[in-house]
Amino acid sequence: MIETKLPFDQQYVRSFSEGRGEPDWLLNVRLQALAQAEQLPLPKPDKTKIDRWNFTQFSAHLVESAPLSSLEELPEQVKVLIDIAEEQKNVYVQRDHTCAYVSLADELKEKGVIFTDLATAVREHSDLVQKYFMDGVKVNEHRLTALHAALVNGGVFVYVPKHVQIDVPLQAVYVHEKAEALFNHVIIVADVGSKVTYVENYISTCERSEAIVNIITEVFARDDAQVFFGAVDNLAKGTTVYVNRRGVTGRHARIEWALGLMNDGNTISENITRLIGDGSVGDTKTVVVSRGEQVQNFTTSVIHYGKHTEGYILKHGVVKDEATSIFNGIGKIEHGASKSNAEQESRVLMLSPKGRGDANPILLIDEDDVTAGHAASVGRVDPTQLYYLMSRGIPKTEAERLIIHGFLAPVVNEIPIERVKKQLIEVIERKVK
Amino acid sequence: MATLTIKDLHVAIDGKEILKGVNLEIKGGEFHAIMGPNGTGKSTLSAAIMGHPKYEVTKGSITLDGQDVLEMEVDERARAGLFLAMQYPSEISGVTNADFLRSAINARRGEGNEISLMKFIRQLDEKMAFLEMNSDMAHRYLNEGFSGGEKKRNEILQLMMLQPKIAILDEIDSGLDIDALKVVAKGVNEMRNSEFGCLIITHYQRLLNYITPDYVHVMMQGRIVKSGGPELAQRLEAEGYDWIKKELGIEDEVVEQEA
């Protein structure tokens, strides 16, 4: 048995939970999770050794952040993401653990849409949160899920009632300023026949920060619901990140992910979509840039349970300097999920001979009547493409830039908030330079 | 007026000599055609002029208005005024045709002198309409999923947008049906003026029914073995190449592999 001394004990968790006025069910989840966290093993991302990474040792669980009186007070790099002039904003801003600003259009409030920080949601919609909290991701999957449940100290709750279709995106910005440890939890529930688009940014305000960020996101698309989930992760060097984004679909539901994973620190990213309902669809697009000496592991999985389900995985990664990026793509079709289709494509572009890139496409199929396919490649910028662009007068560096941006376009083009898209392009620009 | 001068050009690929002393001069206002059987070095000549990294010039010179082309990088050659419409254009995912063209135009114009977006769009719309291209082609990824005919039209679109001094069209007619061929020819003819020089590489006379060259050259075994006017192309169409081989005492030999 592996035992780890955790920096926070039962007594701390109890007083933290009580201090926030949390209901008993949540306190109990936390306490049980804490006990399990001491004994459960770390996750085992394929081909990346993480037993020496620090996911558990930190001295402060909370830092104080003053509330903002106006969004104008936000740092410039955060402010550019938000349309401050818009009066009917659907925006949530969190500084470290604390909700700094939240706004939801009146029209959506009237329809019963909930978009608020998790702590408030727990107080005001306790039953609803209880139903979904740590349901898509189980507490006992491994030490980091358990630790997360025990110490969750930030996040958002989104609920879209039955048949409510929201055309404008909901936007969340999580600003990492000085927290040593952020356990951020995002729950998105799209009830039967509803539709929602959610876009989030994780952004550090400093260039380097020794910190731990442990994110769990649970997306529930109930029968006939559609969820589009866009994310740009841009956390600083030195920050060790575990991010788990999980989706669960009902009948004929659809979840689309567009993830721009641009962290500068060591990162374990897991994105699993469980296609439970018949006829449901999971579409995952991920782009990544790795640089410096960072080590990253990206596991994307679509698991088919329902019949006639469709799963698509697209991953494009750029690796430069001495960075290591492992891309595991798993399409799994369970017994009984007949007429399902699992497709995946993983491509890695190596910009440096010292980097390491690895694309591992995996198909696990336990049903005869299905279709599946995969493509994977690891390579350099194609000299024939460079020649073609240069033959039109475009200098080599600019030609390379065009090819790299084109390679990462599948996610960039999907981001529905123009400001966030622009920021993603700028981040890519900066990282590949 | 621009002049492209090729003197005693020898080119090797993977150590094997393909071109064995080509001499050719193309001036602004002139249309030249190079014909010849497959595998005689025609495409090698075009790739060597543009600077394809796999082709090694072992002897001879290429100059554009006296400037040494062989000393230039590929992009510098383009900015100096050369253009190559390729037989097999690359597909580049995620880069739209419009973005690519604007980058190419701005690379020529230089920093601080970029083309205005409005002007660019106007020119692009105009040229695409002229080439009977669907306007959505501007926003599709560069050559990705284009049919053979669409790719060739797109090469001519680039030619018209970039307005080079000297263009080389490498088998621009291959794989085109007669309607597409006419459109491509219309685009090339539109370029004709006293400043613009063009080298048309083909092994079918068909294209030359629509674009009339001022000079026709026959290439065999890595050399230009015969030159003449448009009537030479017609004779080749009617009689094939055997009479030239006989006249010059050439035995069959393939010097370049078709790509």
Automatic annotation (TrEMBL), chain A:
Biological processes per GO annotation: iron-sulfur cluster assembly
Domain of life: Bacteria
Ranges that cross the membrane: none
SUF system FeS cluster assembly SufBD N-terminal domain segment(s): 109-171
Residue ranges constituting the SUF system FeS cluster assembly SufBD core domain according to the UniProt record: 177-407
Family in the record: Belongs to the iron-sulfur cluster assembly SufBD family.
Family matches, as NCBIfam families: sufD
Record protein name field: Cysteine desulfurase activator complex subunit SufB
Source organism per UniProt: Anoxybacillus thermarum
Upper classification of the organism: Bacteria, Bacillati, Bacillota, Bacilli, Bacillales
From TrEMBL, chain B:
InterPro entries in the record: AAA+_ATPase, ABC_transporter-like_ATP-bd, ABC_transporter-like_CS, FeS-cluster_ATPase_SufC, P-loop_NTPase
Keyword terms: ATP-binding, Nucleotide-binding
Gene3D superfamilies: P-loop containing nucleotide triphosphate hydrolases
Domain ABC transporter: 4-246
SMART domains: AAA
GO MF annotations, alphabetized: ATP binding; ATP hydrolysis activity
Pfam families: ABC_tran
Protein family: Belongs to the ABC transporter superfamily. Ycf16 family.
Protein name: Vegetative protein 296
